[in-house]
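The data layer described in this paper is built around a simple, fixed record for each protein. We quote a single record here, exactly as it is kept in our systems:
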Amino acid sequence: MPQWIAQWQIDHPWLAWAIALAVAAVVYGAATLLLRGAERRLRRAPARASSWPQALADVLARTSRPLLALAALLVGLDAAGVQMPWSGAAARLWFVVIALQVALWLDRLVAVLLGNIALRTRASAVTATLLGFLLRLAVWTLAILAMLDNLGVNVTALVASLGIGGVAVALAVQAILGDLFASISIGLDKPFEVGDFVVFGSVAGSIEHIGLKTTRIRSLGGEQIVCGNAELLKQTIQNYKRMQQRRIVFGLRLAYATSAEQAGEVPVLVRAEIERQPGVRVDRVHLARFGDNGLEYEAVYYVDSADYNRYMDIQQDINLGIMRALAARGLRFAVPERRLGGTVSWTDTAGEQSGHGAC
């Protein structure tokens, strides 16, 4: 700095501070106008929940006015050549201002991104809150450590202590942490939601509540089953609520007294009975095998609904229709063999003995 400027500052300290404040006011006003203009321009973009212009506008809105005023003052002091009373104060203040403002922007960015993800994936509010807390904690921890290091504090020992303490705490509560992170996984990946009917292991029931640590299921018997989230995700879960269609396989067995011509008519009449049902698509009907007790037929069809009661109504109508069609043609169902004393016998559905032999 030229000698005459330094001497002028010594002779007129209040005038130098006045110039610094004037420059700071101009810089603050210009920066505020620029930020407001950029925010308005971004908000004029097409409004979409996941649009980046809207997200950037929300981030810019988190600009701290006190920090902006402090930054403008530092610019004014530097322009007027005012010396700070302690060595290196300006550089350290610049770092603190920048670190705090970046942390504020990242804090708002985390909230905006999690809000957009929650809208797209329909994640629960509990999951979004927990994940947001963890990310914000990481942002502010890094910002505070960086500021302390810039101010001359030895953070190496502090970081080491925090690391050791964190490991000890994690080992002590690893089961709880496992359930917490599992709840985040359930909230984001959404393998099931409240109201879904699920089956895993020996448990079958409807999801009633998904919490931070446990998931509660109302079983078919009426009791409530409480399962840890981490343990639940280890299971192979069948989610019947998301079933788009139901594949049905059923069979019937006719007595060997059925002739070849009659046996060939059975797939046709079974197919006709299935096709009579609305919302049903037939896959196949065949004479599948010669069983130990009779001719075994196998039929496969699809119901365009996941409703179990609807499926049972359809299957009942099909069964009754097949019974009527077989009775009209004089065909009888076969039943398994039964041992009666020293003979082996088999009967048809009318209860008449159709044959016997020595055991």
